[in-house]
Specification:
The chain has about 230 residues and is of the alpha/beta class. The protein has a single domain, classed as Stimulator of interferon genes protein (Rossmann fold). Helix content is about 45%, strand content about 20%. α1 packs across α4 and α3 packs antiparallel against α4. It is globular, with a radius of gyration of 18 Å. It is a multi-pass membrane protein. This is Stimulator of interferon genes protein. It is found in: Cytoplasm, Perinuclear region; Cytoplasmic vesicle, Autophagosome membrane; Endoplasmic reticulum membrane; Endoplasmic reticulum-Golgi intermediate compartment membrane. It catalyses: H(+)(in) = H(+)(out).
Amino acid sequence: EISEMSERSKQNVAHGLAWSYYVGYLKIVLPRLKESMEKFSRANPNVLAHRETWKLHILVPLSCDICDDLEKADSNIQYLMDLPETTLTRAGTKRRVYKHSLYVIRDEDKLRTCAVEFATPLQSLYAMSQDEAAAFSREDRVEQAKLFYRTLEEILQGAKECVGTYRLIAYEESEEAEPHFLSRALLQHLQQQRQEEYPVCPDTLCSAELSLQISESDLPQPLRSDCP
């Protein structure tokens, strides 16, 4: 019985992390994102040229291996500046600050600007797989990363206040080191947003999406017993 409970708790790791990420962060910042970008654009008229890309681009590497400094992850990605901060009092913390960073993505002779960051809960999955006490294998980590993506996608699709404010970018890194894989993935998503009628689906990204197809039986079960 204890073993079964342990297995169920592992299944719920991704489910819990996705909901925590949404309730404790995305639900707070995403509805305020457009206003923040409007304010920034008024002060810097030529930086954010394409309104259709005024979204938070959330990177979801299925390896869960996150680089804290995006510029070190890909030299074609350069920090520009931060968007105006959102300051709220939360859970006893006065004037808690929420902010997003803008990055310039080099596209040959052109520069594209967008707000981008990693999905931070993936750091927890990675840390768990490195800690023997968590009894969490690399295979568990990859499966949980896929479940995290699927669960977060479903949550956000049902959140009316977040419509048009985000872009989830899930990807599997190539076994062969590609120094500009990340910038290329971002550029493809930016291009797709500018031309939504003609979706862009390069092989590398399509294969990542296909690998995320998970049967209903593989999805994490609700944490509450009264959920259907």
